[in-house]
Write a structure and sequence with these properties.
This protein has about 250 residues and is of the alpha+beta class. The structure holds NADP nicotinamide-adenine-dinucleotide phosphate. The site of NADP nicotinamide-adenine-dinucleotide phosphate (NAP) has 20 residues, from helix 1.
Length: about 250
């Protein structure tokens, strides 16, 4: 199969489209997905540079969010069948034509959502939702300040905060915070997925329901073919992206 391989730590220049072996058959609890589209995110930029908290050694296939069709199911998987179209979260490997993912990390696509939107929905919206509602304890009528508001997580954060009747102050292209009395709270979506998978699953269900009602909609900045992954990554580094980038 074709896959984008990170061949050394660095910038977009370390990425190469290669012919690589297909993944093994899915293990217990896993599905294999023929990936149709995937998101490229700032997290991928950090991972390529070896600056992310999860630091795989090159060579590796980057990419953690995708949409595609289930082509094989592992033992014990009852949630999906071959042919189902799913949004999938991968630890690595989404910049490829085939990828294995835990069935727990896959969801059906909300009604009315396009393939490209589904490819970038899960990660950004679940991060923004957890950050605002659970870590940030957002209540109706609160005033919320959103940094990086034009970015992949910023736009979902604006949509979710507005949906919960918050007053939103969105900031782009500046990091200067002069308002007194601000409380900073750490958030790590990976930590929620590991420690409280039941909350993560409930969050995803809530988000899928809201999206199916047309209340949440990913903003796609641009679509790139997989062969132009370096351009997509460079656009993230150059802060050109407003919303999300999709690799097809
Ligand atoms: N805690 C978690 O669980 C979690 C999960 C996922 C991602 N993240 C992190 O969240 C951050 C945002 O991710 P993302 O996917 O939204 O990235 P993104 O799509 O690249 O968006 C980042 C936004 O921040 C702005 N920005 C970039 N560099 C800046 C700087 N030096 N000073 C001020 N603003 C800057 C950018 O545009 P402007 O030029 O318009 O300001 C852009 O709108 C990343 O650091 C990512 O690693 C955290």
């Amino acid at each position: 199969m074709r896959a984008v391989v990170c061949e050394a730590f660095g910038g977009p220049e370390v990425l190469a489209l290669r012919e690589v072996p297909e993944p093994p058959p899915p293990g217990a609890g896993e599905v294999q997905v023929r990936i149709r589209a995937r998101g490229a995110q700032y997290v991928d930029v950090l991972m390529l540079a070896g600056k992310y908290q999860f630091r795989p050694e090159p060579p590796f296939i980057p990419g953690s969010e995708a949409v595609g069709d289930v082509v094989a199911i592992g033992p014990d998987v009852t949630r999906f069948k071959i042919g189902d179209r799913v949004m999938s979260r991968h630890r690595l490997g989404a910049f490829a034509e085939l990828g294995n993912a835990s069935a727990e990390n896959c969801d059906s696509i909300p009604a009315g959502m396009s393939l490209e939107e589904a490819a970038v929905f899960r990660g950004a919206y679940s991060t923004a939702y957890h950050a605002l509602l659970q870590r940030g304890r957002l209540k109706e009528g609160d005033r919320v300040l959103i940094h990086g508001a034009a970015g992949g997580i910023g736009i979902p954060a604006i949509q979710i905060a507005k949906l919960f009747d918050a007053e939103v102050i969105a900031i782009a292209s500046t990091n200067y915070l002069l308002i007194k009395g601000i409380e900073a709270i750490g958030v790590r979506i990976g930590g929620l997925n590991e420690a409280h998978p039941e909350i993560a699953a409930a969050n995803t269900k809530a988000l899928v329901d809201l999206a199916a009602q047309g209340k949440l909609k990913p903003r796609i900045w641009r679509r790139f073919p997989l062969s132009e992954v370096a351009e997509a990554v460079q656009a993230l580094i150059d802060r050109k992206v407003i919303g999300k980038v999709v690799l097809e």
